[in-house]
Amino acid sequence: MSEVAAIHAEANESPLTPESWGKLGMWVFLVGDAMSFGTLLAGYGGVRYGSIDWPVPAARLGINLTAFMTFLLIVSFSLYEPRTILMMPPAGTTAAA
User: Fold this and answer.
1) Residue 71's domain spans which residues?
2) pTM for this one?
């Protein structure tokens, strides 16, 4: 009788609650995303290593292009939400002392 009661008790108890199902789903997503990104990086490395005439990055990507793209990113972000750049609280709220 105790063996039947133990099996019945285990069948009713679930170690996964609705909150832990969400956590499990997030971990599955993160692991899958990391594996996908790692596969892309490994593929890029394999193609680059196997290429005989891979271009020199300095010849294609100079400091001028990099500086322009960085400037464009900062300006576009500041135009999107200028309060974030200035670290001002949103309108209608008070700053914490």
Assistant:
1) 56-97
2) 0.47
